[in-house]
């Protein structure tokens, strides 16, 4: 048998059939595996970061569309049968809570963004006579996303007006802290029912302890001491039979207007009946807190439309078994007074009028309301 000569430093494992074979350095192999592992780990970390970033952005942009329940305290959604609209409200300041625990009456005032003089008139007249336990909030929606323009100059002017309006609203809120801003709902007549639902959702979230809720428009004048008297002497007794009640001027025998050109047009697709159920005249009415709580679970069962008073105090009230109490002697249509106003225990019944358009108008009508004499 022929002997095989091994070179110095080699071993029999490096030879096969008399030929030297290439050996693998264990240290070099370990280094290669370690380098590949390092690259893979870095890639995995980068992919994880990108995935996290994507999910974060995705949740911010689309969670309000795909999720009907929100974890964040200030996120809500309009949820009528025919409309789902996510929106956001500004959270109340911790140093200035939305409603103290002692809140008795929450007044929610429907107002347009540009109604500066009306809000000023309200604050300088009847709100100055608010009784303890009263909280007032103005409902403010977003400026329209579409603006009718005739030329570029007109467009620039309108944009400047909207910018100024936004700044004035910011200053007004800083001074008074009585706005509920609805971010995601446009301020127009067609969205009145959205605004009112949002106002009620705000009440349920941030002021559930209030015993009474009043709805008014920004041209309304209310004698708050008289209202407080009637709440204690009449409304409180009436809800002993049914906790869920509306109090105001009941409108009967009114049907939908089918003329598409009319401001109050309602199509048959929205409301099929020839007449509406009884509902409250919407310039001013009062609801027990139980009436609002009973109504909210039925919102997604009805088709929403901009006749908000018909919708909430008529259609939804019937679904929720909310009772309506007629007090037209207190909540008037217009700003006229009778020659001989009725009273009880020396207090005039007439409590709310409407039709003011500026500070002078509020001052004159409120003076007239306060000066009513009992026989």
TrEMBL record:
Its EC number is 2.4.1.-. This is Hexosyltransferase. It is found in: Golgi apparatus membrane. The keyword Disulfide bond does not apply. The chain crosses the membrane at residues 35-58. InterPro entries: Glyco_trans_31. One of its GO terms (biological process) is protein O-linked glycosylation. Keywords: Glycosyltransferase, Golgi apparatus, Membrane, Signal-anchor, Transferase, Transmembrane, Transmembrane helix. It is a single-pass type II membrane protein. One of its GO terms (cellular component) is Golgi membrane. It comes from Meloidogyne enterolobii. GO terms for molecular function: hexosyltransferase activity.
């Amino acid at each position: 048998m022929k002997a095989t000569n091994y070179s110095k430093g080699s071993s029999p494992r490096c030879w096969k059939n008399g030929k030297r074979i290439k050996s693998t350095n264990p240290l070099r192999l370990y280094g290669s595996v370690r380098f590949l592992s390092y690259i893979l780990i870095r890639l995995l970390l980068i992919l994880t970061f990108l995935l996290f970033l994507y999910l974060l952005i995705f949740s911010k942009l689309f969670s309000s569309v795909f999720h009907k329940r929100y974890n964040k305290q200030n996120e809500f959604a309009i949820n009528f049968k025919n409309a789902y609209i996510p929106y956001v409200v500004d959270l109340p300041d911790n140093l200035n809570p939305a409603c103290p625990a002692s809140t008795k009456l929450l007044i929610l005032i429907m107002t347009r963004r540009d109604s500066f003089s009306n809000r000023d008139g309200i604050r300088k007249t009847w709100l100055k006579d608010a009784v303890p336990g009263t909280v007032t909030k103005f409902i403010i929606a977003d400026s329209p996303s579409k603006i009718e323009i005739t030329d570029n100059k007109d467009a620039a002017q309108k944009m400047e007006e909207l910018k100024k309006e936004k700044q004035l609203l910011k200053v007004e809120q800083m001074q008074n802290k009585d706005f509920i801003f609805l971010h995601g709902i446009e301020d127009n007549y067609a969205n009145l029912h959205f605004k009112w639902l949002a106002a009620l959702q705000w009440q349920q979230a941030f002021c559930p302890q209030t015993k009474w809720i009043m709805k008014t428009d920004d041209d309304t004048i209310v004698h708050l001491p008289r209202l407080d008297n009637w709440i204690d002497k009449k409304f409180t007794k009436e809800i002993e039979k049914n906790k869920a009640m509306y109090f105001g001027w009941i409108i009967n025998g009114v049907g939908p207007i089918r003329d598409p050109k009319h401001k109050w047009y309602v199509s048959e697709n929205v409301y099929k009946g020839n007449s509406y159920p009884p509902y409250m005249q919407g310039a001013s009415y009062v609801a027990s807190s139980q009436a609002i709580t009973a109504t909210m679970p039925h919102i997604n069962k009805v088709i929403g439309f901009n006749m908000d008073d018909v919708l909430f105090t008529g259609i939804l009230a019937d679904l929720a078994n909310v009772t309506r109490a007629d007090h037209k002697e207190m909540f008037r249509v217009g700003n006229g007074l009778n020659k001989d106003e009725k009273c009880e225990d020396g207090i005039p019944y007439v409590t709310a009028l409407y039709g003011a358009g500026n500070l002078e108008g509020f001052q004159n009508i409120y003076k007239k309301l306060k000066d009513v004499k009992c026989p």
